[in-house]
């Protein structure tokens, strides 16, 4: 059954008035400065540097955008991109990336050129939102001329780095609020009907339909099993409405959907999906699942 959303008229897409009404209801709930920037200033290991690649126009001083990049690029090494916080509300995507930088990045520096972008959407992080202030989903906006500045500036960074990427791992969560808030808001914004799917209880990955690399996905799933449980298929053999192609693995056409996971032409691509609302999940457990997934991905291709 379609959930009635308190903004807009059922069946009619939002205009500027409804989008402004939605934005006016958002508020800052946590600090990007304290929870991300202050940490970043202390944890970058030797051989890497912080690179500011832009800032969000909503408040450039409050929302600078940073990547951790190698000081020297070695063309003889494979290169990897790690992105977190494309959906700002998905906390372990951000905090897991920061934990990887602090605890594990240095151990891989002799094997790879690694670029980590820990928080693509800091406004979304602070307000605990899937969208940006324009009611745009950055993770549906990775295409030329993107109107989502979060996506456009990450595209620009990747193009300027010009690294032949072997790996891209994009860190996400699937939360109970996907059904209670974000999918109803999406249906209302677009004036359409969405049937909510069951929220999967556990970790899963999203592979690329055209190049799933299932052995690679399995390596990630197997590593995360040591940290948290893997999401089972529902009664229809699906996870979030998509067919399960391997334990804990579904596929999306990432380029067609303009997902962050379709940003590059890397051979090995995966999107992690942590379930933070499980009865046995903790913030620490969720962050560790993200770190385990990153390490497994890197170890698979080294």
TrEMBL record:
Family: Belongs to the peptidase M14 family.
Protein name: Peptidase
Protein source organism: Alteromonas mediterranea (strain DSM 17117 / CIP 110805 / LMG 28347 / Deep ecotype)
Keyword Methyltransferase: no
The Peptidase M14 domain, residue ranges: 28-302
Domain of life of the native organism: Bacteria
UniProt KW Metal-binding keyword: yes
The entry's keywords: Hydrolase, Metal-binding, Zinc
